[in-house]
């Protein structure tokens, strides 16, 4: 009787792996790599420990890593043995063929949603492949914390201390070579702050006319000069 080759499509995949969660995770990665390669990507970036785990239990399923990204992840592709294994999973999961009058497509497998990492796949003439084919897929790239200064989805820091002003208090913004007329540049900020602290929602808002629960603070800006005020710039007061 012929001896089965270790790691070949004819052996039970991951037979020595008893951790079912890890087994499902590694199989999902293999399926994801195959799906990405079928779409033209050269492979998928995986964490080194995931590459090592796949190689430990199925040493013939992955080719040697060909690149490393800034997160120290390795670009790997699937061998013909790995391809055969993933294709066997698809054939097992596929439903029975329906009647010709009512064709039904099999459901798409549920795969992880990793972050795309640029990895151009060379075309036959040595030039870069079209844009739709030049990105390899990465799994488990950590998402950076939200920005606290615009462009992110965290709460923005207050540039001017509008929220700290009591009625009659003010703050001063000096003139600079970049902003010689701060009163002009501050006018939009003052208007926005007045709207932000309004007691009722403005016209056009979905809650128009309803109370906001805010203070109703109002602000005004005035230019200042050395001759009259002994300061050059602009000052903002809270009036209500």
Label this structure with key terms.
alpha+beta, three-stranded antiparallel β-sheet, five-stranded mixed β-sheet, 240 residues, 5 helices, single chain, disordered N terminus, elongated
Q: Can you give me a brief rundown of this structure?
A:
The protein has 240 residues and is an alpha+beta fold. It folds into 2 domains: 20-138, no CATH class; 162-238, no CATH class.
Walk me through what this model shows.
It is a single chain. The chain has two domains: 20-138, no CATH class; 162-238, no CATH class. Helix content is 26%, strand content 14%. It is built from five helices and eight strands, in the order H-E-H-E-E-H-E-E-E-H-E-H-E. The protein has a five-stranded mixed β-sheet. The chain has a three-stranded antiparallel β-sheet with strand order 6-8-7. A hairpin with a 5-residue loop joins strand 2 (67-68) and strand 3 (74-76). It is elongated and about 85 Å long. Mean pLDDT is 75; it is low at 1-10, 99-104, 113-121 and 150-154.
β-strand number: 8
> Structural class of the helix and strand makeup?
alpha+beta
Counted up, domains total: 2
Largest sheet: 5 strands, mixed
Helix content: 25-40%
- For the terminal residues, how far apart are their CA atoms? 94 Å
Strand content: 5-15%
**Can you write the helix and strand succession as a string?**
HEHEEHEEEHEHE
Whole-number mean pLDDT:
75
Low-confidence stretches: 1-10, 99-104, 113-121, 150-154
Cross-sheet strand order for the largest sheet:
2-3-1-5-4
Tell me the Rg in angstroms.
31 Å
Principal-axes shape call: elongated
Q: Quaternary arrangement of the chains shown?
A: single chain
Can you count the helices? 5
